[in-house]
Amino acid sequence: MVALCLISSAERSGKTTIAAAIGRHLIGQGRRVGFFKPSLTAGPDPDAGLMREALGLDETLELLSPAYADEKALKDNVKSAFARISAGKDVVIIEGPAGRSQLTDDIAEQLDARAVAIEAYSRQLTGSVESTRKVGGRLIGVVLNKVPRSRLAQAKAELAQAGIKVLGVIPEDRALLTLTVAELARGTGGSIVQPKDGNTAALMENIMLGAMSPDHGPEYYSHKTNKAVVIRSDRPDMQLAALDTSTKCLVLAGKAAPIPMVLRRAEQRGVPVISADNDVAGVVVAIEAALQDARLNKEKVARAAVLVAQHLDFGVVYNGLGLSGQR
After folding, report:
1. What's the CA gap between 25 and 168, in Å, rounded?
2. CA-CA distance, 39 to 13, in Å (whole number)?
3. Has domain 179-292 been given CATH number 3.40.1390.20?
4. Domain segments of the chain: what residues?
5. What is the C-alpha end-to-end distance of the chain, expressed in Å?
6. What is the rounded distance in angstroms from the CA atom of residue 284 to the CA atom of residue 301?
């Protein structure tokens, strides 16, 4: 059994997304994969449930993500907890408690884990350089995540020039950063009025506000695809204009009930409609807050797995873990 610990110099680097994608790839190669994320909260980390589903694990959430009162208790018990979760596995992917990068490094050292650093893209390479220095010989390499597609080649070249072993440069995918229809409804405090029992797991890559006038509507709404559009509930003309473009969800802001014509058009186009009592400004604030807390789900994991498979050098990862290679 080998342990792979994902580390990062900052939060929101995408460690759990990459962990799920790597785990799925390993399983596809016939490896028995486990997951371990000790927690310093009152219970298991919420990501444990997602990883349990994504990797088809049988262990309880308490085993996957044992909770400890403080860092001392975690360090004193992490080896025994890991021994229980790693039994019968070929590879166990480890994440540390959220926001505790130093503690994660300590866990990796205690468990004799190889490490992969996941760093979110920025114009400064400080995080990536720091990751290589503090881990030393246990580091397999660095994955630069959420890179704008226009800067993929440049980012890879800059890392190489800095002497950093690059495992992959993962392009930014807005669908992994956004919300599903169901999450959008919850975040805005709205209700899904159409369809009542349809698919609300669709991901939206863009969010737009209503146009200033219906004359400019079709052209304006055509600027973005795969989008949710936030429109005043008393402007059915704008709503219909949005439905004539590549709109994935309508969010009607205000207390006016949606008119039947809009609901019929949305039903014909297969577009969910959310009704939120707040005004447009309030809905936008709620969406911004929801985006900050957006979590992984099955659809995002599947999308991320394809993206990572295209851009991560799994051969180097396998060699770094001492595995025989891809099967």
Report:
1. 15
2. 18
3. yes
4. 2-173+295-321, 179-292
5. 17
6. 26
Q: Say if 2-173+295-321 and 179-292 have the same CATH topology.
A: no
Q: How far apart are CA 278 and CA 185, in angstroms?
A: 12
User: Is the previous residue joined to 195 through a cis bond, with omega within 30 degrees of 0?
Assistant: yes
Rounded distance between C-alpha atoms, residue 288 and residue 148, angstroms = 21
Q: Give the whole-angstrom CA distance, residue 66 versus residue 43.
A: 7
- Tell me the whole-structure pTM to 2 decimals: 0.77
Half-sphere exposure of 312 (CA within 13 A, CB side): 27
Q: How confident is the model at residue 279, as a pLDDT?
A: 94
Record the tokens describing residue 208, joined without a space.
């737009």
Whether the CB-CB separation of 317 and 22 falls below 8 Å is answered with yes
In the predicted model, what is the mean pLDDT of residues 84-97?
92
Residue 187 DSSP one-character state: H
- Alpha-carbon distance of 202 to 270, in angstroms, equals 11
What is the assigned CATH class of domain 2-173+295-321?
Answer: alpha beta
Amino acid at 44: P
- pLDDT tens, position by position, 171-218: 998 778 788 888 899 999 999 998 866 567 777 888 999 866 666 677
